[in-house]
Amino acid sequence: MRLMIFVGFLALFVLVGLDQIWALVFAALFSMVTSYFLLAPDRERLARGVERKVEERMARREQKVDEGRTLEDEEDAEVEQPRRSGEA
What we know:
Blueprint: H1 2-16, H2 20-38, H3 40-87
């Protein structure tokens, strides 16, 4: 999208009759400002999508850690149980 905006401004400035170097400079400047405002909703949507995926991965990772702790606790309890019954 940014490239299309840049090319549009470049074509406009070349058609107006600006020198090529100035047309490139002005097209770059105008396309940066324009794309910042025009593409903000898309940028926000993509950022929310990335944030959601990161949160899902963190939740899955946390769940795996919790499952690992539960298994370790069960194993520890099995190991501790015979010791306790032998001590009594």
